[in-house]
Amino acid sequence: MKKIWKKCLLCIICALLIAMPLAELRSACMAEAAGGNSAKTSKTGSALSVQLRIGKTNVTKKTCTMKAGTTKTIKATASKKISSVTYKSSNTKVASVSKKGTVRAKKAGTAKITATVKTKQGSKSAWVKIRVRAAQQAPDPQPGPATDESSILIVYFTRSGNTEKIADIISEKTGGKKVRLETVKAYPQDYDSLLDIAMEEKTGNARPELKTKIAHMENYDTVFVGYPIWHGDVPMAVLTFLEEYDFTGKKVIPFCSSGSSSPDTSFAHVKESAKGAEVSRGFWTTSAGLGNLATSVPAWLDGLGMTWNEKKEGAEENTMKVTAGGTTFTAALADNSSVTALKELLKKGPLTIRMSDYASMEKVGPIGTHLPQNDEQITTGAGDIILYQGDSLVIYYDTNSWNFTRIGKIEGVTKEELLKALGTGDVTVTFSLQQG
Questions:
Q1: Which of 97, 159, 217, 323 has its CA 20 to 30 A from that of 247?
Q2: Is 90 helix (H, G, I), strand (E, B) or coil?
Q3: How far apart are CA 232 and CA 302, in angstroms?
Q4: What is the CB neighbour count within 10 angstroms for residue 40?
């Protein structure tokens, strides 16, 4: 019996010794599985990444070179839904950045632009270094008194053309330079659809990206800002313009048109957005007053108490004729050393070149010489005229985004109208100066 009992006891002990490691092993396996799931969940929950882009280029933790006086817009994207983005410059004397991420290069040096993205899962920052090079440009005449011709800029945003009529009269009276504001994303021609988008932009306090860029903004002391009143207020694209540039010490003078809405709210928002500017009494007309602009606009200008340099008969226009397929277009020219050189070339006589299709978006042809380049990131549209690599002119009839030198734009032309004149295949195009 004792031998049987001892054998039974030995069997029980062995069973216990075997069972205990198996239980521990099972427990460890369960813990491993649980830990793996936990780690996987944690990894998924914390995967917040941020990237910075200029155009289509990823510039996160990279160095971007800019010329003093130019601007570029940084866009922050994240792997999670973004609640807000704040931008900060380490050296605002070299490069400043707006609330919307527009970087303005001011003087030679380096600045780090940091974007902090906030999401429901937390916040994270990313940066890009901006290296600013001194602008190498032909010596432009420095602005004189506030009423010097070179110091007056007339910027206008228009749909129906009413605001442009006012801008034309202001230009004739003051001798100022006219520039039409255009957005990267065009507004619909249908009026009801336009109003819907305008309301969406106003409700969301949007800042539509501008295609129009102002060269040598620092040379202008007086800036007229024109627009139609949409939903009782200034269009959001105009606020983009006012917030993209430094208006410190400048005189800003608004002018607008509307069906019947009061201009007061829009004038207040212009004053709020043009930081550091002296905002003068604006001009406003309703549809009923459009027929009296020839007298009402000059009377308003005279009432501002300033002396203007009116355009003289035969004064040189900053425009160029473009003739193709029997059709002649007028292009408004940009303000840079490339255009100055081109105008000097055209003073010797019209320039006729053979242009060819490229990528179903442009006509391009060599000019037989080399002009100075002022490349910047540009998104083109129908009518844009570009200098490519300093030795070729390009007429765009569709969109493209790249670093180009802006020469000018054929205003108010559609893709269809351009293609009708340019045709398919090669075409002979003549560029010439407007005769005053």
A1: 159
A2: coil
A3: 27
A4: 10
User: pLDDT tens for residues 247-279?
Assistant: 999 999 999 999 888 899 999 999 999 999 999
Task: Read off the CATH number of the domain in which 96 is found.
Answer: 2.60.40.1080
Residues 6+ apart with CB under 8 A from 60: 50, 51, 52, 126, 127, 128
273 CB neighbour count, 10 Å cutoff: 20
Residue 31 inside a domain? The answer is no
Residue type, 120: K
Task: Assign residue 422 the CATH number of its domain.
Answer: 2.40.100.20
**Separation CA 303–CA 318 (nearest Å):** 28
Which two structure tokens, joined as six digits, stand for 4? 């049987």
Residue 386's nearest CA partner among 398, 395, 375, 377 is: 395
Residue 208 clears pLDDT 80, i.e. is over it: yes
What is the spatial distance between Cα 130 and Cα 94, in angstroms, rounded to a whole number? 9
Model confidence at 10, pLDDT cuts 50, 70, 90, reads low
The span from the CA of 340 to the CA of 169, in Å, is: 26
Cα dihedral 259, 262, 267, 273 sign:
negative
pLDDT digits (tens, 9 = 90+) for 80-117: 889 999 999 998 888 999 998 899 888 888 889 999 99
Structure tokens of 200?
A: 């969406």
Kindly calculate the radius of gyration of the chain based on its CA atoms and give it in whole angstroms.
31
186: domain CATH number is: 3.40.50.360
Q: How many domains does the chain have?
A: 3
pLDDT digit string (tens) for 121-151? 889 999 998 988 776 443 333 333 333 445 8
Is there a contact between 70 and 106 (Cβ–Cβ < 8 Å)? no
